[in-house]
Amino acid sequence: LTSHPGLELYPKFSPDGQQIAFTGQYRGDEQVYVIDIHGGEPKQLTYYPTPGPLPARWGTGHQVYGWSPDGKQVMFRTNRDHFDARRLYQVSVDGGLPTSLPMPRAGSGDYSPDGKQVAYSPLFRDFRTWKRYEGGWAQNLFVYDLENDEARQITDHKRTERDPVWLNDGIYYISDRDGTLNLFKYDFANNSNSQITQHDQWDAKWASGDGAHRVVYEYGGRIALYDTQSQSEQILKINVPDDQVRRTARRVKVGSQIEDFDIAPDGQRAVFTARGDVFSVPVEHGVTRNLTQKATAHDRESAWSPDGRYVAFVSDRSGEEEIYIVDQAGGEARQLTDEKFGRLTDLVWSPDSQNIAFNDQQGYIRTVNLKGDVKEVVHNEYRSASGSHWSPDSQWLTYAANEGNDLSYSVYVWSLKTGKTQRVSD
What we know:
mainly beta, 4-stranded antiparallel sheet
């Protein structure tokens, strides 16, 4: 339906299914538009400037949330009144100035089927990556009576409640009170909340409803549909016809996408990682070689072995980040680690080219040899052990670690042979 280079986001069907409201960047910033379901020229509804582009965790301006039940108004969220306080507004599809809903602060929201009330969250944290968050920004849900100008709270949990969807038999919403974001329901009859889905692998997000008995939401990168009448859930199979242009082989210049590099021991070549591959590049004479050629993986942190035989690198080709080595002339890469260590960084070869020291984001320093044997050097609870260096005989590893006051570091030496650590500075 749309093909503009700018973003087109948050599509919402009108109640009669004939129009789609969305947030678009047709003129640089984000505004509210509507388009016919058969396509055509989008109609712009809002014109107030937005402050974007915003940091990712703040979302976008003029975020469309839905329609009034009569199909005459589009609801959207904006920070036009105060930079740190989002509010819900509505704008007529026939044009005119938007009007604010009476809640002084609001994140997500949805009209009741009769249009007389709004289910909403006063706080906005939709794009944050905090899991199982229990702090002051944990969202609760309220119902606002537009006729009587009254609000009442319907959920009260220390964790997240977001994306309210008002259907005929109650308000459905997303919560991670069981550890994973799942679909829940608030029942007006007995003033109770109950869990509907039982997912424990992926989070459910971005719930939206048809105003009657169906809810859709994202689950594991797919779209899930829950029918409240049959109490059944299905993962939709969606096929978008495409000519696969971006999957055809082509040459890409990656010089502007270099992540890291290392120099060969003889100084005649260098390795660079760029756009997810590891390249061996001659300093003066020779050809450039793509050592990994793995379009489906992100290869990075390349490090040349001191004997010049291998290039070590980190790759997520197995689904987890692991350490691999590949012959400097090319060939099949060999996996050394097979653990879920998380994000790996700072690969440092021992001078004898038999061991590699590496860090992870949890504050561990470990070593792995060419056989794949892993040894733990240290776990610093402040996640600040760093600066690994091998001794000339490859038998000792030195590093610096925080002592717990966020000010002082000490230098330690670890023995490869005994596994023992000695502090060598005050």
